[in-house]
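Let us work through a complete example step by step.
Step 1: write down the sequence.
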Amino acid sequence: MTAYIVCVDDEQAVLDQLSAQLTRRFGTTHRVECAESAEEALVLIDELSAAGDDVELVICDQVMPGMKGDRFLQRVHETRPRVMKILLTGQAGLDSAIYAINHAGLHCYIEKPWEVEDLNLAIDGLLTQHRLRGELEQHHARLERRSRELRGLHDVGRALGAASEAEQMLALAAESARTLAGSACAVVAQIGARPALWGGEASMLSPESRREFEAVLLRLRGEGRLGLPPGFAPARAISLDHGRRLFGWLMLMEGPDPALDTREFLAILAGQAAAGLHHMELLEERLRGERLSTMGRMIATIVHDFRNPMTAIKGYGSLLEEELSSERRRQYARLIMEETDRLGGMIEEILEFTRGERAPLRPRSVAMAEIADAVERRVAPELKSRGVALRKELAYDGELILDLDRLTRALLNFVANALDAMPSGGTLTFASRRAGSQVELALTDTGVGIPEEVQARLFEPFFTHGKPRGLGLGMSIARKIVEEHGGEVGLESRPGEGTRVTIRMPLEPPALAASPRRRAGER
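Step 2: predict the structure and record it as tokens.
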């Protein structure tokens, strides 16, 4: 782009003098063009601007045929206010100079005839002012651009912090880097034991280059060192590192090397992405640790819960070696089968919970006494060892349609909690009564009770309270079984007074009514 000084005067001799004087003084930095009228000068300025050149200064006479100097400068100011302006006037041209100052942004007026050095000094000052003003505007525009980029980085940082997937985070980083650098970007990162993740314009790299980058990244991470990808200069590859831990690189794939301030912004972006990746890696490690801890506690609970039926099976099996009556042998064999079924039921219970599926029910008509006997038979040894008496109050002794094995399993989970609440013995009451279209089964203990703040969480999976062992699945599984039968569970407890668990079962559950049964109340 060429800088111009345009001189306008209707006298050719004056134009020749101005052209010679200005070319001699400013010819190394500016070209001088002349016009004999304001109209000709306006066309000339338009042509120079259209060619991409910059008219920095206009010097014009006031008295010219056609458009006067002050009106001409006003026209120039309206379309190009950055152009510096000098008006050449006679003694009578003071009013014209004042008009040009007020309406045309006139910077200087000089009376004819002028002193060469005075005019040169005025022009030199105005050209310097024009240059400084341009530099100031450029600096201001650069500051505005950097302010927008900083705001953009802030928004990107928030988006990176909200990203839930590493792939999403890399895509955001690559797109933001493209905006900052004005060129295509590729990004590669490694988190934990995952395969390398790519984002941005990774397709611009050959498969061989990508494998090479992945190998170098894996090696540097293993050695705990920082480094650059093969073939990339520091200006074109920014490390994604956090706390001296390398996660990957942001690579500029085309275009010139970015300016220093752009590289600084790219480094900030890379730091934000690396911090997000570090947080994601820590979160994955935490979740992995929690999963392992949960699995460990679950395995410990399974082992603990399996020991009771396994001990019973072993005990009954050893008794079969002795000389027993046929009736006693049949009794022990039946107990062994029941304990084996109990083990199978526990296994199904755990698998069902982990799968989150609803197991199919096998409903049939079951008398209330049969339900109570099934529970009593399973817990009789523990009742005796703990000094707990079982009382049965069956106000309703009719039948219900239900899956006896699964409902018994739910009742046993409630009983297990009741026994834990009575370490020094007590009374466990199994009661039933008719309540309209429902039957209520109630298990009431005389134990230590449950604090009010704990009661609301008792049915949450994995919640335990006051137990040295246990995964906290029993109550949630028990309620799930009851709800599968169309029933509901209620709980009342007072610390020091005991706990009452009430199960409300429908007499005619629609989902289970397909099984044949006798009428409610028949024996």
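Step 3: interpret the result. The domain at 3-138 is CATH 3.40.50.2300 (Rossmann fold).
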